[in-house]
Amino acid sequence: MSYPAEILPQPEIWAANTDINTLRNKLLDLLCQEAYKEGDFVLSSGEPSKYYINCKPVTLHPQGALATGRLLLAMLPANTHAVAGLTLGADPIVSAVSVVSAYENRPIPALIIRKEAKGHGTQAYIEGPILVKAANVVVLEDVVTTGKSAMKAVERLRDAGYTVEKVISLVDRKQGGAEFYQSQKLKFEAVYGIEDIQQRYREMT
Known about the structure:
single chain; alpha/beta; Rossmann fold; six-stranded mixed beta sheet; two-stranded antiparallel ribbon
């Protein structure tokens, strides 16, 4: 006896075929659903917070990764030679941007910056292709609070002889990061401010 195969409904692949504005709104909804929580939390800095945002469930989500890659690629300066970020939060983001860039016929390699030098082999801080001297690298981050985390990546890249003039984050918590980057003569841009996420979160709940 044979049984008909069950055909499961296919989810809408919105991340691949929507315009940038719609894409931004869809990714915002996904961040509210999967990344943002309200309650009593202690941040890595030791400071208390009434909310917590962890972007990795979104940047490691198939549609979230594709949407992130498309949005951030569109924000890169025309002279960008590579994107880079400090492990671990930036790893899926730089990878997504690099993969999307290949499909957009604008191939941009990704670099991952270690927090500590590799303990064997070349003992390198930077993983990825070796670029030409003074190559323009944009540092990507998932969430910016004070800005100090991504600054470690900026410093490692500059020590390696690369040019870094801009940091782009998926989310800005608006807790001094933008002002810190300005003091460091770095341009800074974020896809979302925390108020965008909080407003949409309350609309959805």
